[in-house]
């Protein structure tokens, strides 16, 4: 498995599995589970997550819900921490697990859910991991799943309401993911969004407590880390890909935001 998930060969014979996300950075390839649903709960880490044609810039804490057959891969730029839950349709009794199935159906339209209580999820998933290893009864695991799904449904509704009130920031976020590094000036993004630089700055400070310029630089650093950790390109090549005028400017920019040169950043993960 390339996703950082430890899944034993016996998984095919199982209907359900919970485990901790492997806390390491490694280069990943696109992969999928043909028979399993996958819920990935991330409490720490940064980078990108690609699901089919959608590419997300991670913003912790969050949960990703993958359906059977969905192709995805990770590009972490810092150590991740969280849990992975895998399950098959057959884990549910269509008669006796009706309430669980109703909650699951409400989550089906979600792909990414912002989690609003790390302590709740961390404690519940830690307990699920322990009970799973202790081979707890189906009733115990179902009770824990019920609490987990219900909380996710609540958080998904909260996120949906927030999206309705922050459509401009959502559009800005999508532009960031697709247009950086070609665009990097606040005025360029403001023009694309049919707003003013002042309005975009105000919005960014309200949502992320950062200026629009800082949000753009944050995205540019993520793009740089992606190339550094997940390709063998030289510093010169990466500087060119990111539209820096020369290597020196790129190295200075990267060190200003990370306290490391690109070479030092790569070496701390790949010796």
Low-confidence stretches: 1-13
CATH class category of the largest domain:
Mainly Beta
The amount of beta strand, in percent, is 15-25%
Which fold name is given in CATH as the topology of the largest domain? Jelly Rolls
The named CATH superfamily of the largest domain: Jelly Rolls
Tally of DSSP β-strands? 6
Mean pLDDT: 88
Biggest sheet: strands, sense, closure?
Answer: 6 strands, antiparallel
Helical element count? Answer: 10
What is the H/E string? EEEEEHEHHHHHHHHH
Descriptive keywords:
Arc Repressor Mutant, subunit A, 6-stranded antiparallel sheet, globular, Jelly Rolls, disordered N terminus, 6 strands, 48% helix, 10 helices, 271 residues, alpha+beta
Polypeptide structure, described:
The chain is α+β, with helices and mostly antiparallel strands and 271 residues long. It folds into two domains: 9-164, Jelly Rolls, CATH 2.60.120.10; 167-267, Arc Repressor Mutant, subunit A (Orthogonal Bundle). Helices cover 48% and strands 18% of the residues. It has helices at 98-107, 118-133, 138-165, 167-179, 186-192, 197-208, 212-230, 235-241, 247-258, 262-267; strands spanning 16-20, 37-51, 54-57, 62-66, 72-87, 112-114. Strands 1, 2, 3, 4, 5 and 6 form a six-stranded antiparallel β-sheet that branches. The chain is globular and about 65 Å long.
